[in-house]
């Protein structure tokens, strides 16, 4: 009996000491550890301590912001996020982490079901742009399959109906020539930890575009290959999984090296590749200095007299450098950041080739195209 | 403030705990009162006034009632107290519902008040009412000290989602309570277990319910998975909260009543309601059902009493018709059981009785969680294949696999299996020694896992906060 009481007493001491120590340590840790301003893993700014005002306290906005602040600056936040991910995958055997799943070494984010309405919105937007600006020009469109096309259905994950997406576009997009890219790609042509494709794996894509659009590009073998590392893809941070980082291999030659990229919105000129800038949060920003509403790439060496306009999403950032050799000038328009009504203020539509190049991820959410 | 938040777990709780144990005994209730008002203010700054009004009102009403016990004055004071409490509850919780029904019935356009529901109002008004009624009945003495009474009304562990603690249950502890290492340890243990039930199980099941609601590929099977998931979610959510409340109470020297006793192992609905939200059930029994006459009198009167009590029980959960229907559904089944089916149920195999309870309860929670009456009919139609949907879909299969382990853990956790294994281990010397390591390690693992989920901020509502 005495022994039993002693065991109980020891256990009570251990439980009380353990739990209170953890709670107190983490509280003190949060108070005394200096706040970070950004989370590199999550690619976002962390919440600042909220402003204290009578109004914000009474309407509880202060409390809501304070909760976000506490979570953002919790000690060992990344470690705790990894614990959550591992708990979900290993103990609960969840098949995904808020949409992100892992097959072999590839991470991908579920994108389903097919939003037919959204696809039709995209097709309508393309048609409107054609009707407003592109009559008489050679206009093409190509769809880039996202990673789920190669990973989802085959591994028991829900997937959008890609064939239906293509047939909807085919049926509703008028006056444009479709360029089929699905058969030019396979899963290893994409980064393992990121949704994007790898530039050094785009030879088939480039040849298909070249064949359909009748331009002459630089042969792949003529490029030098450079490496940017480490590259932590978007899905590493989102999933908080402990996965090795990758490297971005990018292709360069004299033409690319001498070409300039003019960001119209920022009124800033940069190189085609910017490994030294803007890549802290997203390594993929090495291509054309990251996301931009309107960019103009000038190839001063070329006298082909050809120009290209690409309506695009981020996938085009890594492909476009490989097209520079074939065109004097390439204009890149990202309709997610720029309304199509403003196009004629910045672009004179005259004899250019035009390519609508969009991934299924954007087409399935086409209302973001302005 | 909610228990499953960083602000509570890593700021409010340690600050309150250490302050409470550092101050002399005579200041402990004062610390608890300040902490409780801060806790409520953090979630409902303006409505903290209601909490104070309720405390002041019932404190003085009960004193007055006690002074005039046996006279009509006491009765009037009791009526006044009940009217104030029910008035607050009715105004803030049911006013818009009433206006909606008047407008629909009469075709009028009376503007709605759009009042937000003060957190926990259904709980604290029921507590204060029970106190004043008990004083009127002479079952408890009116509290002399306002500090003690206000501490009772606002006591943060059970303030916003129960259990409904009657004053007489903790009146002695309010004045004089012991604090032991065992209480603190057991309280912490119960709190961490409740927190884990909420964050690691209920929230996961809540995600599944939400996925079902947003599904583009519903199927009959998905409807059943949703129904089972929600039934488990509400159990883990609410019983988890009760565990946390009881654990916190224990840490500060209070013994709160149990609120759940593995209701899903029941073999009749009568038994289910002796195990589910026990403090609410006993409240309605003692303050509504028995005063109405209970099961005395004719069968018609008894049925009337059952209907009233179960309508009110359902309606207490929310100002929507589906809650009233949910209550009446249980009322009807209880009448059927007591009059006819229970004697037949007792003759069938335990597994059949168990399945019967589960089916009734799962269907009840589909009614409970539906959006209005049309939502009830569409959800039930989906369950029984009366909608134009397939029996199974790819998404259903995927989500079944995705949440299989969570569902299995929830089913196991809803039975006393783990508790029985634990008590068996305690009985044996070697395993009880091993528990010195296993128990704290498990609790530590749970606390760290819960913290990980809170830090990475995901789905985290408390279902019973809206009641």
UniProtKB/TrEMBL annotation, chain A:
Residues that span the membrane, as ranges: 12-33
Keywords: Membrane, Transmembrane, Transmembrane helix
Protein name: DHHW family protein
From TrEMBL, chain B:
EC assignment: 2.3.-.-
Keyword terms: Acyltransferase, Cell membrane, Membrane, Transferase, Transmembrane, Transmembrane helix
InterPro entries the record matches: Ac/AlaTfrase_AlgI/DltB, AlgI, MB_O-acyltransferase, MBOAT_fam
Membrane topology: Multi-pass membrane protein
One Pfam family in the UniProt entry: MBOAT
Subcellular location(s) per record: Cell membrane
Signal peptide: none
Molecular functions per Gene Ontology: acyltransferase activity
Transmembrane feature ranges: 7-24, 30-53, 74-92, 112-133, 145-165, 221-241, 299-317, 323-342, 354-377, 397-418, 430-455
Family to which the UniProt record says this protein belongs: Belongs to the membrane-bound acyltransferase family.
Protein's UniProt name: MBOAT family O-acyltransferase
